[in-house]
Write a structure and sequence with these properties.
The complex is a heterodimer of chains A (326) and B (335). Chain A is 65% helix and 2% strand. Chain A is mostly helical. In chain B, strand 4 (57-62) and strand 5 (65-66) form a beta hairpin. The chains are: A mainly alpha (326), B alpha+beta (335).
Chain lengths: 326, 335
């Protein structure tokens, strides 16, 4: 023991200077992180924890602070009837919830798939050199720049069954035999929502992919030209592997966004069972139905599902956020 | 093997004409070097030969056949880019084999053989499984050359292949390219550089370009000994040729005299001219003495071995009479 307390050997001096510098840097970094961490804790951490807490209580809007702990009751509880039949209640046994989960997943999968493909096409076009490219690049962002509420309202008028321009055009061109209530009919409601969302977010996707495309050096396409690589092959063998990192990150951004879709559906197809997503259902329970605890349970589940999807995606897609394999 | 013929080739980008009418024949199996200052159009000319740029007017012939509209991949060419242009997501092997796998009629064994043969030639066999980013600049350039060899081209194009390498590597790779040319004597090679040393050491013939026009075509020695203009005289050779004008030139019946540093002797007295030493550079094997004698740029004298002329010392110099180049006011030689 005594030997350890002896003065350190001289050789330590050099690393120590370095480590002092490192310590200083680490300390500075911590200080820079503090404001952001504080803000995050206040606006994200605390509400999240509160929601999770409420989901284990019987809280209602009338009596938030008198809420009592009910454990997992909001998620799943059961009672055995006298007849011996076991009846399950709670979120996990709620068909409305599973309908919302299915709607959300369907919406997320279809919209992100379309947005990825269309975004890639738009990005490829914008990456080509042509006159007025700058203007086109700016113009294509317009759908993304319009607030969702505004574009949802705009589309809801365009899709209106009586006065909507889409029905009008469809009738005049002979594509429709009768006017369709796009947003109100259960069969078309999801399609309507998807169309608007794809219209709105493809530009965002395109821009993220475009950034990736511009990282691809031009000269390797010339090498490919000399190698006689067909343009289609060029895309699949050269362009796609090289923009893959950017594409994967763009998809995950959109996926997170799509899984918590709320505003578009709330405005475009209110109260339609065909389009009701997890967020919409959670809000409905939280505030409209005064099932605050139940709505909190939905919010918590939504959080878990999004987290699960993200982990799955990152794991299966081998996404790397450090610039990929270049 | 292919001969390349350029007939009155012009190339314009919008309103700017970059190549202003070039006639040139590159013979079968020849190593032709395009050399010139930056912006002279040498790289553009190479890209016209490769087919990566369209020809604005004129005719390009490979083996007597017009190839103006032929796709690059069908011209039987391979090109080595300045920036290597390797596919970053493919291994060295895949990079070299990619072109072949897309062509019909090559089975896997044949492709492997050809890639390995090229890799052996360039000593990159041990790197075949690596990605380009795991290689040094010199290794990458060898892979790029290997990729070109694998395609077994009739015409080999080099676009400043050494300019991204450091000095030592540049010399080593230069020698490799020279060896490559010897071992592939049925392949026509066109090489672009702005470095006259590369041009002198590699070329069978050099084509000196200036402002989109050919200034002179000839063997390195022809260009060195019989430059067709002041421009070529100044561009070829190191140190740069000395140009002396004024009365001194008039005595020789010329507007400008051109004398290379190695063709001037310093004499203790009775020299033709005299000048003041302003600087001496000792390079070991030889030394450069810079003299101030009223010319636009100091006159450089190249001497064998090391020398120790002091700054401010006045020395007498004499040019070797038979090595004097005489140019008229238009920069053309007086013969």
């Amino acid at each position: 023991m005594t030997t350890e307390t002896l003065a350190p050997p001289i050789t330590v001096t050099a690393p120590k200077i370095k480590s002092e510098l490192m310590q200083q840097r680490v300390r500075a970094a911590r200080w820079f992180l503090v404001p952001m961490l504080l803000a995050l804790a206040v606006v994200a951490g605390w509400p999240l924890l509160r929601s999770i807490y409420f989901s284990f209580t019987d809280a209602s809007l009338n009596d938030l602070y008198g809420a009592e702990w009910v454990g997992f009751g909001n998620y799943l509880r059961w009672q055995t009837l006298d007849s011996g039949v076991v009846r399950y209640r709670g979120l996990l046994a709620d068909p409305a919830w599973w309908n919302a989960v299915w709607n959300t997943l369907r919406f997320a999968f279809v919209s992100v798939s379309f947005e990825a493909v269309l975004g890639m096409i738009v990005a490829l076009v914008l990456n080509a050199e042509f006159k007025g490219r700058g203007i086109v690049r700016a113009a294509i962002l317009i759908p993304w720049a319009i607030p969702t509420i505004v574009s949802a309202k705009m589309w809801s008028w365009m899709l209106n069954d009586q006065f909507g321009i889409i029905n009008d055009l469809g009738m005049k061109l002979g594509l429709l035999s009768q006017k369709v209530a796009w947003t109100a009919t259960p069969e078309t409601a999801m399609t309507a929502v998807l169309i608007v969302d794809i219209w709105k977010t493809t530009p965002f996707m395109a821009l993220l992919i475009l950034a990736g495309l511009q990282m691809v050096p031009k000269d390797i396409y010339e090498a490919a030209e000399l190698d006689g690589v067909h343009p289609v092959k060029q895309f699949f063998r050269i362009t796609l592997p090289l923009v893959r990192p950017a594409l994967m990150v763009a998809i995950i951004f959109r996926l997170l966004d799509a899984l918590r879709i709320f505003d578009l559906i709330y405005v475009l197809t209110p109260n339609s069972v065909a389009t009701k997503t997890m967020s919409v259902l959670a809000r409905e329970n939280l505030f409209d139905f005064d099932n605050f605890a139940y709505g909190s349970a939905m919010s918590t589940m939504l959080f878990l599902i999004i987290a699960l999807m993200t982990i799955l995606y990152i794991w299966l897609g081998k996404v790397r956020f450090d610039g990929g394999d270049r | 093997m292919a001969s390349i013929e350029l007939r009155n080739i012009r190339k314009a980008f919008g309103a700017v004409e970059v190549i202003k009418g070039v006639d040139l024949e590159v013979r079968k199996g020849e190593f032709m070097v395009f050399v010139g200052p930056s912006g002279c159009g040498k790289s553009t000319l190479l890209r016209l030969i490769s087919g990566l740029e369209d020809i604005t007017s004129g005719e390009m012939l490979f083996d007597g056949k017009v190839v103006n509209a032929l796709a690059p991949s069908k011209r039987g060419i391979a090109m080595v880019f300045q920036s290597y242009a390797l596919y970053p997501h493919m291994t060295v092997y895949e990079n070299m084999a990619f072109g072949l796998t897309l062509e019909k009629g090559h089975d896997k064994d044949e492709i492997r053989q050809r890639v390995e043969k090229a890799a052996d030639m360039l000593q990159i066999r041990q790197y075949l499984d690596r990605l380009p980013k795991q290689l040094s600049g010199g290794q990458r350039q060898r892979v790029a050359i290997g990729r070109a060899i694998t395609r077994d081209p009739k015409v080999f194009l080099f676009d400043e292949p050494l300019s991204n390498l450091d000095a030592a590597l540049r010399v080593a790779t230069r020698i490799e390219i020279a060896k490559l040319h010897e071992s592939m004597d049925n392949v026509t090679m066109v090489y672009v550089t702005h470095d006259q040393v590369e041009a002198m050491t590699l070329a069978d013939r050099i084509c000196v370009l200036r402002d989109g026009l050919i200034e002179q075509v000839g063997t390195p020695m022809e260009l060195y000994e019989k430059p067709n203009s002041v421009f070529v005289a100044g561009f070829i050779g190191s140190p740069k040729m000395n140009f002396i004008g004024g009365e001194r030139a008039e005595k020789f019946g010329a507007h400008t005299l051109g004398i290379r540093g190695e063709h001037i002797t310093i004499t203790p007295d009775n020299g033709l001219w005299n000048g003041t030493v302003i600087h001496t550079e000792n390079l070991g094997a030889d030394s450069y003495v810079y003299l101030e004698m009223g010319t636009e740029e100091p006159v450089v004298v190249r001497l064998d071995g090391s020398n120790n002329y002091k700054s401010g010392e006045v020395v007498h110099i004499s040019p070797m009479e038979d090595k004097i180049h005489r140019f008229d006011a238009a920069g053309k030689p007086v013969r």
